[in-house]
Design brief:
The strands form two sheets. Strands 1-2 form a two-stranded antiparallel sheet. A two-stranded antiparallel sheet has the order 3-4. It has helices spanning 6-14, 18-43, 50-54; strands at 55-59, 71-75, 81-84, 87-90. It starts with 5 loop residues before the first helix and ends in a 9-residue tail after the last strand. It is of the alpha+beta class. It has one domain.
């Protein structure tokens, strides 16, 4: 995928105060990651619904800075068992790697 205009965007962001530029970039990248997350959830098999519920997105702050914002879209694993009413069930979508 190629996106044109990123150099112009970087120049424009440098004209704003650091905090405003970082927040604007983070909001834009978050919106893009949300599109990916929603598409992954839409394509997930609905056998038990655990896989769809386990898809998440998260900002990776260690790799983000003023000019770079990094978000991860993935599948949560290793979820603890919990009780829901009278049933004891696991929210771990372990089976997603088998398909």
């Amino acid at each position: 995928m190629k996106i044109d205009g990123l150099d112009d965007l970087a120049r424009q962001l440098k004209q704003f105060p650091e905090r405003l530029a970082r927040n604007a970039l983070r909001a834009a990248v978050y919106a893009g990651a949300s599109v990916v997350r929603k598409e992954v959830k839409a394509r997930a098999p609905v056998a038990t619904g655990k896989l769809k519920a386990a898809v998440y997105q998260k900002q990776i702050r260690e790799h983000s800075n003023l000019y770079t914002q990094v978000f991860f879209v993935g599948v949560r694993s290793g979820a603890r068992r919990r009780r829901d009413g009278t049933k004891d069930f696991s929210r771990d979508a372990w089976y997603w790697r088998m398909h």
